[in-house]
Design goal:
The structure is a homodimer of 149-residue chains. Chain A has 2 domains: 3-84, no CATH class; 87-130. Chain A has 5 helices and no strands. Chain A has helices at residues 14-18, 38-48, 50-59, 65-81, 88-129. The interface between A and B is large, with 62 and 63 residues. Chains A, B: Residues 91-118 form a coiled coil. Chains A, B: This is LOB domain-containing protein.
């Protein structure tokens, strides 16, 4: 849909259709609310209000408006699904996930350090055994220590 | 501030003060917008509009309204700071953090598995050396293998 050439022969954008007004050339909503997706505007209008969205879009640069509308649509949909927490619920879930993963990573790194220390000790064993003519270096199943970093 | 007993002797809540109206007993905003924090209502009003917030609060149960107001205030503040992405920006950052941590954890677990396999091999070495009267079991620096799980 070419919004700059909006005319009576083009369908109005989803916002103008919802608001029952003529979609004039230069309509601030038109490029971001195509008539094929009426729900997007309906959600954003219910949560933020058309006037607030219009003000916000006018306050930011044109090349950032699509991202702004999409983030507003995301927030609005989240608030429709979860009226109490909205997308802040997703933030809480993600924050807990980050804390859990960081703890797991710390624990795994600690385990890895213990293995690395144990391996260092093993090399010491190797040194202790170097002069004992053991089968150490002739072991049929050498370990791929080089792969460990 | 006791909202149920709001009277002319009490200051109006931040919402009623902002909207220049009398704060009557039963005011839907009063318990969540104390007069000491005018910015909280100002932000929420600018982003969502007082009417939308009032509708939303009336649609949810009383015991959930405080959480709802706090999540709205969080979203509103995030949108004031970042008009393009709002708190969706925080979601993107957290999502990337989760992906990065999960990758790091997978890589660390893979390293741990290699050490575990190497350690299993080391025990094999031990078995190979068992009948060779080496200093294996008399090593002065035994490794704390028991700590590794």
């Amino acid at each position: 849909m070419s919004c700059s050439s909006s005319s009576s022969s083009n369908p109005p954008c989803a916002a103008c259709k919802f608001l029952r007004r003529k979609c004039l050339p230069g309509c601030i909503f038109c490029p971001y609310f195509p008539p094929e997706d009426p729900q997007k505007f309906s959600n954003v209008h219910k949560i933020f209000g058309a006037s607030n969205v219009s003000k916000l879009l006018n306050e930011i640069e044109a090349h950032q408006r699509e991202d702004a509308v999409n983030s507003l649509a995301y927030e609005a949909e989240a608030r429709m699904k979860d009226p109490v927490y909205g997308c802040v619920g997703a933030i809480s879930v993600l924050q807990r996930q980050v804390i859990r993963l960081q703890k797991e990573l710390d624990a795994t790194n600690a385990d890895l350090m213990r293995y690395a220390n144990a391996n260092y000790g093993t090399n010491n064993y190797g040194l202790y055994n170097n002069n004992n003519n053991t089968t150490w270096n002739n072991n049929p199943n050498p370990q791929p220590d080089d792969d460990i970093h």
